[in-house]
Protein 1
Amino acid sequence: MKLIKEIADWAYSLAVALALAIVINAFVFQPTRVVGNSMEPNLHNNDYVFVSKWSHTFANVPEYGDIVIIDSRVFRERSVKDDLADPVSTYLSVAKLAEVDNHIWIKRVVGKPGDTIEIKDGKVYRNGTLLDETYLKETMRVAAPKKVIIPSNQVYVLGDNRNNSSDSRYIGPVPVSHVLGKVVMTL
């Protein structure tokens, strides 16, 4: 009987600790691993980053230049279920037991609600002003000109390696609800 009670106490303690870890990772702070090279030269494949989830939890619009993780599935609503499931898959990827879900991207914020983002001649303009993007890997290959007005509660994100990045040029502006957090530390 004593052994069964001790096992039950341990199981309860582990369940509480796991639930607390999931809540903290869903709403406060989360480690994750970079997959791909879309943020080179600043972040590389398999780099580890720590993400503050406060902006997502309180639905704050990130600042210009913030490196954020996003849910690229912009045409579907996110739910609390998504917020609770993402940390589990992230833990598995950090431990290299599984790959990061391919819908979670890491990008840099270049446009906020109400901004006009224009891409022409391989350069990015915000509200008519050329951005000074010293963090880029290389000059963006010239593509068809693009001009977008960012709707309310959305942001425009781009990778630092523009010639090898899927970002808002392809999926459009990202709802603030899909900005899952801000990178606050890299390893």
Note: The mean pLDDT is 89.
Protein 2
Amino acid sequence: MGIEDYGGGPGAQQTGVLVVTTNDVPGYRVEQVIGEVFGLTVRSRHLGSQIGAGLKSMIGGELKGLTKTLVQTRNQAMERLIEQAKARGANAVLMMRFDVTDAADVGTEVCAYGTAVVLVPASA
């Protein structure tokens, strides 16, 4: 059974890289720590979404356009994280986290980061 078969989400089967927020993966051991990897993206806000969000915030409720944009942005950061991990020879990323900050008042910076490792079955 390879790490792709772990079932740790669709990303592991499609990319060959398991991404988890935990320090370890049951049934596997860390054979090699490669180091920190990250995926970064900055998205600007367009005027239409800012006006719509401003109006919506006055009456309350979910800002669906901004939610959709943030989900897309997080997914792009994850894709870049996985690309970097694969390029460095990892088959997993442990302790994955997101960091979200305003970028010079013109957009939002989203960084996905974690520790790239090579996992092997614990019995190996």
Note: The chain has one domain: 3-121.
Protein 3
Amino acid sequence: MKKLVSTAFASFALLCLSTAALAAQPIKIGALFAVTGPASFLGEPERNTAQMVVDEINKAGGVKGRKLELITYDTGGDATKAVQLANKLVKNDQVVAIIGPSTTGDSMAIIPVVEKAQIPLISCAAGSKITEPVKKWVFKTAQNDGLAVAKIYEQLKKEKKTRVAILTVSDGFGSSGREQLKAQAAHYGIQILSDDTYGPKDTDMTAQLAKIRGSQAQALICWGTNPGPAVIARNAKQLGLSIPVYMSHGVSSKKFIELAGDAAEGIRLPSGKVLVADLLPKNDKQRASLLAFIKDYQNHFKAEGDHFGGHAWDAVMLLKGAIERGGDTPAGIRNALEATRNFPGIGGVFSYSAKDHAGLTKDAFTLVEVRKKDWVLVK
């Protein structure tokens, strides 16, 4: 009998130790960012921010006593590579959720992977089609390009400008923006006089801009991510294009001003509030989070926290909240994400639902303008 009791006790003790060891295992989160390549101005601050936030969560005790383990891979902005790495995160690393990728093209490419594997994805890219129509396992933190278009068109309507030219990059982000620019034009009384595109690797857009200069357009709207828009800004200045130039939120960081130089002066674009956090009223719901993020990033990386790093900050913090409320299983995280309401992040105040996995309204954007190599609010 004593031997049986002793054996039972030993088995129970071993079970307790095994359970404790299992409970102490870190929660694995995957991350896909374009740290190198043309979209590195997106992916590098996203990678930096995600790791910074995870480290701080772990330092504070983790989530429900368990640490987060961030497994990050560099897509290089290559959709084929993004799919390979997404499969690696799911099959080899066995992550419970994925944040990123940085670009719309990469995000669209991996959606079939996460949907099949039933792993929640929080994309850091802007294309509306990432979450429209709603996919069960896919969410996003970057503000929709549809909301950005509305912000620009509202300003043009306010200024009684009704004739525009659009110049969009021929990639996933550009095509999604172009669709929104065309779809919303009639609603705002906007007539598109010129609709042209450029390639992601093009280094001169004077031909397209010369056509626009010869039109009756009252404003130019360029849709793309660096370096193309900076080239367009410089080419427009060289040609003496006198109409106002609007860019997309795809260039809302100091990197655009650096690349465009003096040609950036006067250019307007819709952006998350992080670029002008210090100019916001004290009762703004996001202000505290924005200022804390900017200070934190500056302390860690000796650089300004920007719009793009903010997408990763939101993704990690939204996951943290979902794990706290829904547990550490993919299904529990997905359900808790969908139930998220009024989360004040960097990109805006998020409220997801079964019908909305983007979670933001156009209030997430503010219109900014480049003045003396810095951002100012457009009144």
Note: The longest strand covers residues 191-198.
Protein 4
Amino acid sequence: MLFLLLWELAPRFGLIDATFLPPFSDIVVKGVEFAASGKLWPHVLVSVERAAGGFALGVVTAVPLGLALGWFARLDRYLNPLLQLLRQTNPVSLFPVFILLFGVGYITKVAIIYWVVVWPILLSTTSGVKYVDPALVRYARTLGLSDWKLFRSIILPSAIPSIITGIRLAATYSFLMLVVSEMVGANSGLGYLIMNAQYLMSIHLLYVGVIILALLGIATNYGLVRLERRLTAWKGEEIRG
């Protein structure tokens, strides 16, 4: 709240040039007018669709692969050098490659978001499996659990916090890369809206786009935190027990 108050008062008292940073209330009014006109929501929806596409694809591929790498040490030794090489590749430098392969449409934007999303999920999932409490594993072994039951009952539940952490980090990256992807070869989306507003010196709309992206990120993080609490509710039950 203090930040928003400073944002509101600094331009009004001339501490900051209102041309480049309008008062927060003026931006809200402009955003409401733009939304009421029906012009804002198509940009929001298409951006959410692109970010969700790349993010979902990253989750459904990185989580199973991370579980496999963490559980099967030999597979990890074989694939880790290649994965480390690919992980170090700058996604922005790959953007022209994706454009050459897929054009400038939806697939390219989803692909570049996927590339950014997949690595934090993969690494967190792999680490979560590898570094499960050894005492739990030894205890499970003494009970005679099979490898599958050990994985299902001990490894996977214990790795969930690490998996969710990777997913939360990936969600943040997905919105960052969304803006970059929509600034090139796009005619819709919040990234396009921000870039177009900059060219037209429509500063209010520029900040509207930035604020909406921030709100989407906050909402996504909140949802993932709730999901983590639901999936790890058994921890609270153990403590109460």
Note: The radius of gyration is 22 Å.
